[in-house]
Amino acid sequence: MAKERRRAVLELLQRPGNARCADCGAPDPDWASYTLGVFICLSCSGIHRNIPQISKVKSVRLDAWDEAQVEFMASHGNEAARATFESKVPSFYYRPTFSDCQLLREQWIRAKYERQEFIIPEKQEPYSAGYREGFLWKRGRDNGQFLSRKFVLTEREGALKYFNKNDAKEPKAVMKIEHLNATFQPAKIGHPHGLQVTYLKDNSTRNIFIYHEDGKEIVDWFNALRAARFHYLQVAFPGASDADLVPKLSRNYLKEGYMEKTGPKQTEGFRKRWFTMDDRRLMYFKDPLDAFARGEVFIGSKESGYTVLEGLPPSTQGHHWLHGITIVTPDRKFLFTCETESDRREWVEAFQKVVDRPMLPQEYAVEAHFKHKP
Known about the structure:
Pfam families: ArfGap (PF01412), PH (PF00169). The chain is of the alpha+beta class. The protein contains 11 helices and 17 strands. Strands 7-6-5-4-10-9-8 form a 7-stranded antiparallel sheet. A 7-stranded antiparallel sheet has the order 14-13-12-11-17-16-15. Helix 1 runs parallel beside helix 3.
């Protein structure tokens, strides 16, 4: 009898929507919340265990199931839960996947089932109101210490601002929503709630690193920034659909890590630098947590004369790492080396993805700026 019930639960996994985790989309979930009626992956099951008043979990394959639990799972399932618990998710709200950090997945699960934010829209106020202010811990540019700073996000002014002193009249920095990006970087920042915000100043990238002790608070800030960008883009591109705009709200970096580089004359030695590939901008930093990039390389498309090659020109000297990459641009060659072959493979793949993609009209303007940089 117990075997039959377990087999019945396993058969439910074949139904549409049940073959992927209800919360993060990971394939082949083998856990279930028998109080919510959803199939979930091992990673999300750990988060569900932390909200026992809402969700109780079992292994689909290992635990014993009683008749009532099997019937409950059969009458619910992932698609039915989505129709209920995700009925009013705003277009701009970030839906995490299994490759996202623990914090984003945890807050998504809590928002859905515990706080029921997507059933009761009034609960979305903290990130949908168009204005937000509060204190966040911000990493100091020179000393690396995190200090409490007042932040203000205002859609009306199209800006995120922060102030060095609570009573300061003028902000220390004004970051235009138009050029803002935010991405969670817990490992890099050394805090599970660490958020990296980048913006353009004089067409160069600036970084700030922030966190809040409260996970909900920092995820609300993240979604408030996405909401502000969404409303800005709706005005900037009046004919565009939500589906066109959502991928532009915030972006994770294509690739980050250490490589060695040499200068334009290729006569000085190679130096180890931290590289970040942000769309078509390849930036390099002395340290991963630097506020400013030491330099940026624009990577266009193959139609515009950009190529990615494995290896270095035969005469190249001065590099310690053996796995070379050459990026050919219309103006010059950029030479990089990676420590391992798998590193090189990942970087080449990231570069190739960008080179294979045709350039958008606005990207030609960015390319022209790079060419005229002093």
